[in-house]
């Protein structure tokens, strides 16, 4: 597994990619808001679907608190669009086909399942404060409760 995550307390790595509609998306677009940038392995797979639906189901609560949710995987725009339509997702999915976003955040690396090793995206969430600094990195994601977990971390940060 890649351990070259950026450091908490440091500025989050800048990025400029496109979303599922082809619209350019940069981290600087969201200065002034908390950003939840979550990386997931693959559109429309069981764990990734539960995680996305958790964010969908809590999206109104999160946005009302000035929190922006961005999903990212190595899937292409067409796959992202299908995933969004199938589950009525309410936030953008970033296209990272060349792997540059995963590389910047250290989420691409060797994984293992059923005794086989392969390269893939590790399920990891980065929470970025309104000034663009990384305040938390979640590597042990509970897909069903993820949105609530993220909300609690941001609340604690605000209250600190």
Descriptive account of the structure:
Helices cover about 30% and strands about 30% of the residues. With about 160 residues, it is an alpha+beta fold. It has one domain (about 15-150): Glutaredoxin (3-Layer(aba) Sandwich), CATH 3.40.30. The strands form 2 sheets. Strands 2-1-5-4-3-8-9 form a 7-stranded mixed β-sheet. The protein has a two-stranded antiparallel sheet with strand order 6-7.
Brief write-up:
By secondary structure, the protein is an alpha+beta fold.
Element layout with pairings:
Layout: E1 16-19, E2 24-26, E3 34-39, H1 46-57, H2 59-64, E4 67-73, H3 77-87, E5 93-95, H4 100-105, E6 108-113, E7 116-121, E8 124-128, E9 134-138, H5 146-159
Parallel strand pairs: 3-4, 4-5
Antiparallel strand pairs: 1-2, 1-5, 3-8, 6-7, 8-9
The CATH topology is Glutaredoxin
Note the gap between the termini. 32 Å
In one word, what is the shape? globular
Q: How large a portion of the residues is in β-strands, by DSSP E?
A: 25-35%
Characterize the main sheet. 7 strands, mixed
Low-confidence stretches: none
Order of strands across the main sheet: 2-1-5-4-3-8-9
Q: Number of domains in the coordinates? A: 1
Question: Could you name the key traits of this structure?
Answer:
160 residues, alpha+beta, Glutaredoxin, seven-stranded mixed sheet, two-stranded antiparallel sheet, 5 helices, 31% helix
């Amino acid at each position: 597994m890649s351990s070259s995550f950026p450091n908490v307390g440091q500025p989050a790595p800048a990025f400029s990619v496109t979303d599922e509609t082809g619209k350019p998306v940069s981290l600087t677009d969201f200065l002034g808001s908390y950003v939840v940038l979550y990386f997931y392995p693959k559109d429309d797979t069981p764990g990734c679907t539960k995680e996305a639906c958790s964010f969908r189901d809590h999206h109104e609560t999160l946005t009302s608190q000035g929190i922006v949710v961005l999903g990212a995987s190595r899937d292409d725009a067409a796959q992202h669009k299908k995933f969004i339509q199938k589950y009525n997702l309410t936030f953008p999915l970033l296209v990272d086909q060349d792997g540059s976003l995963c590389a910047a955040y250290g989420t691409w690396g060797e994984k293992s399942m059923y005794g086989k090793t392969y390269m893939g995206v590790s399920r990891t969430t980065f929470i970025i404060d309104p000034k663009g600094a990384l305040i938390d990195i979640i590597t042990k994601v509970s897909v069903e409760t993820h949105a609530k977990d993220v909300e609690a971390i941001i609340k604690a940060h605000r209250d600190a």
